[in-house]
Write a structure and sequence with these properties.
Structural class: alpha/beta
Order of helices and strands: EHEHEHEHEHHEHHEHEHH
Number of helices: 11
CATH superfamily: Alpha/Beta hydrolase fold, catalytic domain
Strand content: 15-25%
């Protein structure tokens, strides 16, 4: 049985994958949804970027057999750093509307000044963690959510340590990997300019792309379509 390891992005945690996990298990896959340090219930927000990287690398190295890694959003650049430390345990990487960064760059290097200044100011008031803005979630992330879905998602999301945004990556080791990669591309994503996530993925090389008509939160707002697309990515 093939195993899928799901890795969430900023403000998220493993609970955001609950329905996708259920559908993947129903389809015959083993599934593990990780929760990054600082994003779990009761976690301290005093974490470093290396804590993220080491946690994922340790989790992957602990796997009995090779696994398929799914990286959503900001998990993209953490996976860039972590997978080279556990490359022998990774069968394939599926990126989903991910932040893939050039060597030496951080996510904030590609965020408008007004937005990152606001996030930094919020983090100062929140002990180094950025609160989750309902207007941002509704207007840019979960744009296809109905009211019930939106409220359930807001109940799950957590404050996000700022380090995930500000830390430059060392992408050289990742760029030398020969692991198969696929993009699960949510075509109704409004969180970045059109085609930005596709362009980031294509910077890695000529790898397959599977499209689904989902917003940035497709894993939560449209888990059936999302999981169908994910299975296509797995089986390519």
């Amino acid at each position: 049985m093939r195993k899928i390891v799901l890795i969430h992005g900023a403000w998220h945690n493993g609970r955001c994958w609950n329905e996708v996990s259920r559908l993947l298990k129903k389809a015959g896959y083993e599934v593990e949804a990780l929760t990054l340090p600082g994003n779990g219930e009761g976690d301290s927000k005093n974490v470093s970027y290396e804590d993220y990287v080491n946690y994922i690398a340790k989790s992957l190295n602990a796997q009995k057999n090779k696994v398929i890694v799914v990286a959503h959003s900001s998990a993209g650049h953490i996976v860039q750093m972590a997978v080279p430390k556990a490359k022998g345990k990774v069968e394939k990487i599926i990126f989903n509307n991910e932040w893939i960064l050039p060597d030496g760059k951080s996510q904030f290097d590609f965020v408008p000044e007004e937005i990152k200044s606001n996030m930094r100011e919020q983090a100062k008031k929140g002990n180094g963690a950025i609160p989750i803005d309902p207007g941002f979630v509704r207007g840019m992330l979960a744009t296809q959510a109905d009211d019930e879905q939106f409220n359930k998602l807001m109940d799950i999301l957590v404050t996000q340590p700022l380090v995930i945004m500000e830390t430059p990556v060392d992408a050289k080791a990742f760029n030398e990997l020969s692991i198969p990669m696929v993009l699960l591309y949510c075509t109704r994503d409004m969180s970045v300019p059109p085609g930005a996530f596709l362009e980031m993925f294509k910077s890695l090389g000529d790898y397959p792309v599977v499209e689904v008509e989902c917003d940035h939160e497709g894993l939560f707002t449209n888990p059936e379509a999302y999981t169908n697309g994910l299975v296509k990515c797995i089986e390519i």
